[in-house]
Task: inverse folding
């Protein structure tokens, strides 16, 4: 077991001001694999001061040089990709192949995209007799969750650095090890001291101190709606910028004429990936009444192939495991029918939950409204297209979704009626440059690509 006793502040690893530690647990076998320091408000303060001191120099660094540093960071992350995948598997529990392809692979693509954008983005434009400057927002406080731990770090830090901002990161307490690895890569990439700082710690202590710090100009948060609401309120009181990536309850709408077998198989795979711990997961499958019974059978058969410990990993911790099993019990109590999986415990160790499919789900049920964040799929039946739109839009969330039809034009026409930030048409591929973010209570702001970069910029107009 590794006992880490330092945090990355102002370009070096220094001991925490407080004395507490956080245990990092492997959720597949429940063993403690490491400890990291529990940062305090004093540590956050030191990190924010370092970020403020580094801001003028980094903001004035030509974008092409910032691009060079990001390219070097991409090189370091690439060189350590296997270590990244192994670390995420150890602290999150994701199967190694998924960690390699997604937990390591996606952040590499995103980091590369921001090295490129830093080089090519028009940080100055002309509008009539004005020159408009797109300047960095300032010091960014980034607070990230554990479900895609490196992706969520890179999706904030890379655009912030590309924009000329400096950053203090507070990663999730469950997955601090890949955050440490990222900080090592930042250091190896020659990014100047203070431009990026890492404070590990607990949300209500270090996270709260960072969100409330007067030296932070923008708080970028990804996580639960409950915490996001509090961070938004704090930021509002201080007239501080805020970006929130929150929960989802996305709909996978299968229209008549679609390839039902493919739509169901891809839909089940989407929910089971990362043990269902994906904010954009298509956790509601909406099927026309004429195809509903067949879809239920297909979904149950598909889910049965997700064997816990093989194709599907554990949940991140015991609390999430208990929460998800509680939702499965609630679904049964409210009259939904389990056609795969169920709430029963699996042989330990490990925080596993049975991949579960519910039929006979109605739109007002808790399992059709709330983010479960586990391998649980709800199948709902609709009468016609208007009914499907009403059901799909009938939650407080609007993060992602999918539409399947006999042709792309029909699916796209339906997608225009959805109140949601992203829709995949007939199995459209993930695009790391496409703006990602929520309608309604799924959040404020967009991440990834050029839209993600503008979150970290503010505009100044010079009139000539
Ligand atoms: P969370 O508490 O919102 O955690 C997200 C981040 O915020 C973590 O770094 C957390 O630190 C920090 N945090 C917690 N309380 C804070 C506070 N008062 N001030 C500032 N920062 C704070 O989420 P969770 O408890 O890990 O998960 C609960 C549920 O949230 C899940 O079941 C799921 O529904 C949802 N969730 C959504 C996403 C998403 O991608 N949208 C990601 C994760 C979870 P700690 O790690 O110390 O708690
Ligand atoms: Mg929490």
Result:
């Amino acid at each position: 077991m590794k006992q880490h006793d330092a945090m990355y502040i102002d370009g070096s690893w220094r001991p925490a001001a407080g004395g507490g530690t956080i245990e990092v647990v492997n959720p597949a076998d429940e063993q403690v694999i490491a400890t990291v320091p529990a940062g305090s408000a004093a540590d956050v303060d030191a990190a924010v001061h370092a970020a403020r001191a580094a801001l003028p120099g980094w903001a004035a660094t030509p974008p092409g040089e910032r691009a060079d540093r990001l390219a070097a960071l991409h090189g370091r992350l690439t060189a350590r990709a296997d270590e990244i995948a192994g670390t995420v598997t150890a602290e999150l529990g994701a199967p190694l192949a998924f960690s390699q392809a997604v937990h390591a692979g996606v952040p590499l693509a995103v980091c590369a995209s921001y090295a490129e954008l830093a080089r090519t983005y028009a940080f100055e434009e002309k509008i009539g007799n004005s020159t408009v400057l797109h300047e960095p927002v300032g010091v960014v406080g980034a607070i990230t969750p554990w479900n895609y731990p490196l992706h969520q770090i890179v999706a904030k830090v890379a655009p912030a650095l590309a924009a000329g901002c400096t950053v203090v990161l507070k990663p999730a307490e469950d997955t601090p090890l890949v955050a440490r690895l990222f900080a090592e890569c930042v250091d190896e990439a020659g990014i100047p001291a203070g431009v990026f700082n890492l404070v590990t710690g607990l949300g209500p202590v270090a996270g709260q101190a960072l969100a409330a710090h007067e030296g932070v100009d923008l708080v970028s948060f990804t996580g639960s709606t409950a915490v996001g609401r509090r961070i938004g309120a704090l930021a509002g009181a201080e007239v501080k910028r805020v970006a929130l990536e929150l929960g989802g309850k996305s709909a996978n709408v299968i229209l008549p004429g679609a390839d039902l077998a493919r739509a169901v198989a891809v839909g089940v795979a989407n929910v089971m990936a990362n043990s269902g711990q994906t904010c954009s997961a298509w956790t509601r499958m909406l099927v026309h009444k004429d195809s509903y019974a067949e879809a239920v059978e297909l979904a149950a058969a598909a889910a049965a192939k997700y064997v816990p410990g093989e194709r599907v990993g554990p949940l991140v911790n015991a609390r999430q495991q208990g929460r998800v099993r509680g939702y499965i019990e609630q679904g049964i109590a409210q009259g939904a029918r389990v056609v795969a999986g169920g709430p029963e415990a699996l042989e330990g160790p490990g925080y596993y939950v049975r991949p579960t499919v519910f039929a006979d789900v109605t739109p007002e049920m808790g399992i059709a409204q709330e983010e479960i964040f586990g391998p649980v799929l709800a199948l709902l039946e609709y009468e016609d297209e208007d009914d499907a739109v009403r059901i799909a839009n009938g939650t407080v969330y609007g993060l992602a979704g999918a539409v399947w039809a006999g042709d792309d034009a029909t699916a796209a026409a339906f997608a225009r009626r959805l109140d949601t930030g992203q829709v995949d048409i007939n199995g459209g591929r993930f695009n790391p440059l496409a703006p990602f973010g929520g309608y309604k209570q799924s959040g404020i702001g967009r991440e990834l690509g050029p839209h993600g970069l503008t979150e970290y910029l503010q505009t100044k107009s010079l009139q000539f």
